[in-house]
Amino acid sequence: MSTPTSMTDTIDPSLASHAHPEHRWHSDPLLKVEKLTMRFGGLTAVNAVTFNCGRGDITALIGPNGAGKTTVFNCITGFYKPTEGRIGLRHGSLAVWDEFDALTTSTDQRLILGQDHLYLLERMPDFHVSRTAKVARTFQNIRLFAGMTVLENLLVAQHNALMSASAFSIAGILKLPGYGRAEAAAIDKAKYWLDKTNLTARADDPAGSLPYGDQRRLEIARAMCTNPVLLCLDEPAAGLNPKESLDLNTLLRSIRADHDTSLLLIEHDMSVVMGISDHVVVLNYGTKISDGTPEQVRNDPAVIAAYLGSDEEVED
Ligand SMILES: Nc1ncnc2c1ncn2[C@@H]1O[C@H](COP(=O)(O)OP(=O)(O)OP(=O)(O)O)[C@@H](O)[C@H]1O
């Protein structure tokens, strides 16, 4: 299973059960999660978990129920402050990782190195993780504005861009040509994502009236309207029928291909995980047990044993 030692010499051993330096999560990491630990009282939900997400990759975080996946998500997106560990997100060149590795005493939330930025997500409040570090997420339970139309949901997602174009004042809204331009751009972006998610015909319908699969795609469209660097999807295929699941795969692949957005998803549906992921990280009882390509992970005895002990299936 493991690759020759010569290939793995440069890789942090805690990262790799199936390491190869050519994988983007080693050669071009966007996100580094390092020794992440989260305790709730006496329960260790996540225990010293280390993994990278490659820039331009679809990374899947899988594992049996209660493995700690959502807790990792909540730490990355700022909902939880981890008990220990670090989470770095890069905007710009790879040079920021030298600072991350050297970082010991600073308490900054962000390091600015010329054009490049390094965000220390575990130190940032959740609204800064989304607004400044550009990490968007969807939830296991859909959270749309059910009484607003589909289009309105996509415009509300762009509220921050519109407010800054208004210079945060009513005078700005009334007088600034920049506001008019920002509003037109917001509508254009909403239309683009309506089209990509096949929701144009439902634009004026209340979001709450949409079938379940459409609501799932609308959540993704809404997240993409914020121009995320990293899009975190919590069980995007949950409750979808096989056709909707295939459409979801197509949508996620096209986000990866056409946008500078990397994806991290929690998913139980192995046809989605094995069908579209570049990289799979497996947790069990809060600990990372495997980390590699879908093929490597699917054949990993540790993963097979973990799933055999649960009601879930690792086969696609
Ligand atoms: N806020 C919390 N307070 C106390 N315990 C928690 C909290 N959040 C999660 N846990 C516990 O941490 C462990 C990991 O839960 P988590 O939801 O992260 O797992 P998961 O892999 O996402 O599971 P599932 O696939 O069922 O959603 C579980 O034992 C859970 O009960």
> What name does CATH use for the topology of the largest domain?
Rossmann fold
Summarize model confidence as the mean pLDDT: 86
Number of domains: 2
CATH level 1 name of the largest domain: Alpha Beta
- Roughly what percent helix? 25-40%
Give the biggest sheet.
6 strands, mixed
Strand and helix order: HHEEEHEHEEHEHHHHHEHEHEEHH
Radius of gyration: 20 Å
- The number of helical runs is 14
Organism: Labrys miyagiensis
Protein name: ABC transporter ATP-binding protein
InterPro entries: AAA+_ATPase, ABC_AA/LPS_Transport, ABC_transporter-like_ATP-bd, BCA_ABC_TP_C, P-loop_NTPase
GO molecular function: ATP binding
Question: What this model shows, in words?
Answer:
The relative contact order is 0.16. Helix content is about 40%, strand content about 25%. Helix 6 packs parallel to helix 10 and helix 7 packs antiparallel against helix 9. The N terminus is likely disordered. It has about 325 residues and is α/β, with parallel strands linked by helices. It has 14 helices and 11 strands. It is globular and about 60 Å long. The strands form 2 sheets. Strands 7-8-9-3-10-11 form a 6-stranded mixed beta sheet, sandwiched between helices. It has a 5-stranded antiparallel beta sheet with strand order 2-1-4-6-5, sandwiched between helices. The protein has 2 domains: about 220 residues, Rossmann fold (3-Layer(aba) Sandwich); about 90 residues, P-loop containing nucleotide triphosphate hydrolases (Rossmann fold).
